[in-house]
Specification:
Blueprint lengths: L2 E6 L1 E4 L4 E8 L9 E7 L6 E7 L5 E3 L7 E6 L4 E6 L8 E8 L15 E2 L3 E6 L1
Parallel strand pairs: 2-11
Antiparallel strand pairs: 1-3, 3-8, 4-5, 4-9, 5-6, 7-8, 9-10, 9-11
Length: 128
Amino acid sequence: QVQLVESGGGLVQAGGSLRLSCAASGPTSGSGSYAMAWFRQVAGKEREFVAAIRWRSGHIYYSDSVKGRFTISRDKPKLTVFLQMNSLQPEDTGVYYCAADPTIILSSLSDARQYSYWGQGSQVTVSS
């Protein structure tokens, strides 16, 4: 059973930056299909895709809403994925979740329903 533990998040003013971390433990896969991702959710809405990274190749994918402001990266030896968030805006407020799946295909990377493992969630609040 893969476990994902998130850290980071908090309160920041608009224009500021925050960094989220997600450490994986357990039987993580070295397959080419293994991916980790970040989603966010606000009350009453569905979980929204933010960014994803293929663990082995390092290929990266972003939602249009965060492209150019957020950066996803990984530390392979530490089994940790990061989300550096710059130029934060109030609409970025939400609970951010780390996700992982060993067999997810390219067309499903932005679909929260396709991920098998989830972190506990980290609150990010951006004040105007």
